[in-house]
Amino acid sequence: MKTSKKIPSILILFSGIFLVAFSFSDAQLMPVDAQEFRQAPDYKAIALDGTPVSITDYQGKTILVNLWATWCEPCREEMPALGELHGMFPRSDFEIIGVSIDDPGFEQVIVQTMAEDNLTYPVWLDPENRFQFAFRTIGVPESFLIDADGQIIYQWKGAFDPVSEDTINLVESTIQGTSYQSSEPTILSDGLIAGFVIAFSAGVLSFLSPCVLPLIPVYASLITGMSAKELSQETSQVTRSKLRLTATVKGIMFVIGFSIIFMLLGTTVSFMGNLFFDSIQWIERIGGVVLIVLGLHMIGLFKIPKLEKQIRFDMGKRNSGKFGPLVVGMAFGAGWTPCIGPILAGILTIAASSSSVITGASLLGVYSLGLAIPFLISAIAIDRFLVFFTKIKSKMLLIEKISGGLFVIFGIVLLTGSLVYLNNFFKM
Fold first, then answer.
1. In degrees rounded to 5, what are phi and psi of residue 235?
2. Do residues 289 and 415 touch, judged by C-beta distance below 8 A?
3. Alpha-carbon distance 409 to 419, whole Å?
4. Is 80 exceeded by the pLDDT of residue 170?
5. Which of 95, 129, 140, 226 could covalently link to 230 via disulfide, CB atoms 3.0 to 4.6 Å apart?
6. Cα–Cα–Cα angle for 98, 101, 107, rounded to 5 degrees
7. What domains does the chain contain, in order, with CATH numbers?
8. Which chain regions cross the lipid bilayer (predicted)?
């Protein structure tokens, strides 16, 4: 027998305000492009001649560290321009360092690649990609501009133009110790494409999950104040237009409600991930194991009883007033989180390992969008949704198994540290 739990609206709203304020309270968690610089890690690698090298060896000099691989086409395309940038400034002031994540035994290929493009800047070897965990990267190429004091001044996620006027001015101002506001966008960069694609897909999968899809008529009725029968019956064109307008307006408020909850989760786990910055590799590995277990649960190889439970809210009285659908949406986000937990956990794992709180919130925002779009379409065209649901309900178990399989695969990606390859797949 399922119990009904009531959570006061004011408590939900207060918790949301508190979490937002707490998540953004530490200025060090802001992204590099927001001009809140952070100290570069004491990263160590091996030079091509086998000599141990470190970022701290270049203290007092401006450096641009470029993460690349011989198999990475965007990396190869930007390298000749990196060579041009390298020759524009005296070596005593500025140095470019290429960090190759090629497998062991590719040293000769790396040397040949550098020779083909007449590149003379040093290359470090990092076949285990320790750079990824030290600098919080999610793909190649990625580049970091570090000043003489060891602070990361700028970060390029994905390929960029090393000889653009903007880049040259940025390097020059960094050498001189003056400030320069770059006009290049970096928050929504190519390096996050894989995360956003996965987040949006996960939102759609959550909509199709057995604990959400069957309840769409219930929520459509709840936010419009009409029964499913009334929503689906034939009416005049004027009445139908008014009904759709009501469903759209209230549906958007409902969507905003659960989006607030999910984005608060994203900011919170991102904050925790940044708080335990040095343990990010373990966060990804443990997250990978959790995703594999949850994926196997969704496939049905075994069942975790607590994930089968759902926390329901008595929301019958919460739809009154102008902000009723907003509160109902927030209750939906909080109450059904355990039900869609296996899918949501994957996005939260990515958010925990993201480079900033804003990135984490953005990932959960995209996840909410993937859940919101089909919901709004269903609420507006409830009659067609009922026909669609009749056709698809027999396949819901298969959909859940497919979702479980996808999350097992993604869990393996996190566990093996192969997210870099996934990002490059989405860039093709």
1. -140, 175
2. yes
3. 11
4. yes
5. 226
6. 80
7. 9-27+190-427 (no CATH), 32-176 (3.40.30.10)
8. 192-220, 252-276, 282-302, 323-351, 357-382, 402-422
Q: Which of 255, 254, 262 is nearest to 323 (CA)?
A: 254
Does residue 16 register a pLDDT over 50? no
C-alpha to C-alpha distance for 117 and 80, rounded to whole angstroms: 6
* Bridge partners (DSSP) listed for residue 95: 63
Average pLDDT over the chain, rounded to an integer? 74
Q: What is the pLDDT of residues 272-292, one digit of tens each?
A: 766 555 555 666 677 778 778
Residue 395: what residue type?
Answer: K
Angle at 49 between CA 44 and CA 53, to 5 degrees: 20
**If you average pLDDT over residues 269-273, what whole number do you get?**
70
Query: Who's near 204: CB < 8 A, 6+ residues apart?
Result: 370, 371, 373, 374
The size of the chain, in residues, is 428
Quick: pLDDT tens for 63-99: 999 999 999 988 999 999 999 999 999 888 899 999 9
pLDDT of residue 228: 56
The torsion angle over the Cα atoms of residues 258, 262, 267 and 271, rounded to 10 degrees, is 140
pLDDT computed for residue 412 by the predictor: 80
Rounded to the nearest 10 degrees, the angle between the axes of helix 341-352 and helix 357-380 is: 150
**Strands ordered across the beta sheet of 52-54:** 38-39, 151-157, 142-146, 62-68, 94-100, 123-125, 44-47, 52-54
Cis preceding-peptide flag for 214 (omega within 30 of 0): no
∠ CA 416-419-423, nearest 5°, is: 155
Strands (E), 32-175: 38-39, 44-47, 52-54, 62-68, 94-100, 123-125, 142-146, 151-157
Full 3-state SS string of 251-306 = HHHHHHHHHHHHHHHHHHHHHHHHHCHHHHHHHHHHHHHHHHHHHHHHHCCCCCHH
What's 118's DSSP letter?
Answer: T
> Which amino acid, residue 199?
A
- How far is Cα 364 from Cα 370, in angstroms, rounded to an integer? 10
Please state the φ and ψ torsions of residue 201, each to the nearest 5 degrees.
Answer: -60, -40
Is 16 or 357 the better-scoring residue by pLDDT? 357
Q: How confident is the model at residue 317 (pLDDT cuts 50, 70, 90)?
A: very low
- What are the angstrom distances between the C-alpha of 137 and each of 25, 32, 63? 24, 13, 17
